[in-house]
Specification:
This protein has 2 domains: 164 residues, HAD superfamily/HAD-like (Rossmann fold, 3-Layer(aba) Sandwich); 73 residues. 40% of the residues lie in helices and 14% in strands. The strands form 2 sheets. The chain has an 8-stranded mixed beta sheet. It has a two-stranded antiparallel sheet with strand order 2-3.
Length: 250
């Protein structure tokens, strides 16, 4: 990729590389069944994911009226421990790659692009997903929800990934799907590409991403510098349609 505008790309995992909502819904359902409560809907699951397991468990307990006033912290601690046990047992293959992800990751790796993951997903479930899809060897760095003391949108997990890659911030692209990822990129001072699928709830205009990625397969064109102007829009195979758009920086 001569003349490329980025040297490295860091990916979010859930909602960006894999659709994990159904897998997490099933795990939450197992936990709630033990509590005698009804399972989460897929809509609830999508709304609760992204900010780490503790946030997910807290939202799940509140949604089913399982937190007792005055003992919220203790209740969440106990529930979180059990949820994490179930989470660690979940099959990685239940997390389905989005269209184009497998081929695109392989293409980027073959082009000597440095690749990393920055996710709030805990360590064991993260590696189960990577191993299930044969991705372990593709990534130079993996920062999971247990790697650093803080979680996204705090920038420190993303900065840890960038430091481990040995890349300059202005030569790194962070690819994610949500408000959390956008906040993280902004706080870290790196360019951000927003995937149009995933678990975002806010309008695109509110996130003001540097790039909008409708087709994951178009990512190599972005990385190589094919998106050179703010007005240019292209697909994975051409320079004339709508899979990537770049915005003008203020």
């Amino acid at each position: 990729m001569s003349g490329r505008c980025f040297d490295a790309v860091v990916f979010d995992l859930d909602g960006t590389l894999v659709d994990s909502a159904s897998a997490i819904q099933a795990i939450g359902g197992r936990f709630l069944a033990e509590c005698g409560a009804k399972p989460l809907t897929i809509e609830e699951t999508r709304a609760f994911v992204g900010r780490g397991s503790r946030h997910f468990v807290t939202q799940m307990l509140q949604a089913r009226g399982l937190l007792v006033d005055g003992s919220e912290a203790e209740g969440v601690d106990v529930a979180l421990a059990r949820f994490l046990e179930l989470y660690a047992q979940g099959p990685g293959e239940d997390n389905k790659p989005f269209p184009g992800v497998n081929k695109t990751l392989s293409a980027l790796a073959e082009a000597d692009m440095r690749l990393a993951i920055c996710t709030n997903k805990p360590l064991v479930p993260t590696w189960r997903v990577l191993d299930a899809h044969g991705w372990r060897a593709l990534f130079d760095v993996v920062i999971d929800g247990d790697s650093t003391p803080t979680l996204k949108p705090d920038p420190r997990p993303l900065l840890a990934a960038i430091d481990a890659l040995g890349a300059a911030r202005n030569r790194v692209l962070f690819v994610g799907d949500s408000e959390i990822d956008r906040e993280t990129a902004a706080a870290a001072g790196v360019s951000f590409a927003l995937c149009l699928y995933g678990y975002r709830t806010a309008p695109i205009a509110d996130l003001a991403p540097d790039y909008v990625l409708a087709d994951f397969s178009a990512l190599p064109a972005l990385m190589s510098g094919a998106v050179a102007a703010a007005s240019q829009v292209l697909t994975s195979g051409s320079s004339s349609s709508g899979s990537i758009s770049a915005r003008t920086r203020a």
